[in-house]
Amino acid sequence: MKLTKKQTGSIVFYAIYFVLLAGALSAAAVGLGELWKFLSRYEATQIYHVTDAITRQLNSGDHTLLYAAAERDISPYETEEMLKNQIDERFTGEFSLKKNLKRSTKDAPVYTVMCGEDAVAFLTMKQTGTDDLYGLAEYGPASITGITPVKNERVTLAYPTGCSAEINGIPLAGENVTTDPIAEAANFGDYLSSAPVMNTCTVAGLMYSPRVTFRDSSGRELKPEQNGTKYVCGMPEASGETADSAAEFALEFSEAYSKYIANDVYFSSISGYIPQETKLYSDLKTYEGQFYTYHTGYDFSEEKVLRVTRYSDECYAVRVSYTHNVYYGETYSYPADNTIFAVNTENGWRAVGLVMN
Hints:
Distance between the termini: 143 Å
CATH topology of the largest domain: Nuclear Transport Factor 2, Chain: A
Largest sheet: 5 strands, mixed
Strand order of the largest sheet: 8-9-5-13-12
Low-confidence stretches: 1-9, 11-30, 35-45
CATH class of the largest domain: Alpha Beta
Strand content: 35-45%
């Protein structure tokens, strides 16, 4: 069939219309695709993705950011591991981040790190880069601050000359140490030319109650006495041949002293043990004949050397105990606990002091 001129024009018109419509729809589709792509990239760069990730990290038990927020002003006797432990113990609630408008700037938004209802740190963000396609700002953590260690613990240490102290296994150093005479040392009088002293210092600003160790000059650990937050280390016990000799002399002299006090012997029986210039000599000499314990027999039992303390190469304090039994029809037993201050002179061991404990 032959088309008229009018019909041919209509066909051409509709063909052109559909081509243009298809082109317009195609262009619109491309535009919408680009818009969606832009919106997707824009959403992906939003800062809340970072804050949400940090919140999840904290609530998972990973407190790395909190460790970074803590001040490092801790005692030299404590470690960063102890600081981390304290942070873990202090902050056990649910974490969240809140925008801090007061601290924030346009380029550096700040978030308050919350643990439950408590603000514990401040997280500052910074721009870490830009989106490759659209130049959108990308953010990440810049710094975190605000956690101050709790350092309320303190300890006082007292230890004698020749000994050393450690806190948590770290030797004491750079502390303000005061010295005081050791009362027991005075019993040696002039025989002890260079008396040891007691060193005392207080260490404050600790996060935890510390582990305290004392050592003698050979590195041997010594057991201290503890009273609250004060640890006291006395003079170390002595051992070896000289210490054994001092102990043997001290027990012998102490028992001779007990016999003399019971008037079983004269002063001459013990005077050879004691230097004449000492107060002990004059005190015991004036005692003779003042009292008398009636008895028909006398002996000793349960003899013990409780402690030998070396104050110098020549001076030893020896604590001994025993029971002296007095027989007079019945048996009367008297416990003795004496410290003898023995000096090794050129004439052998001598007693320059005696203290009844």
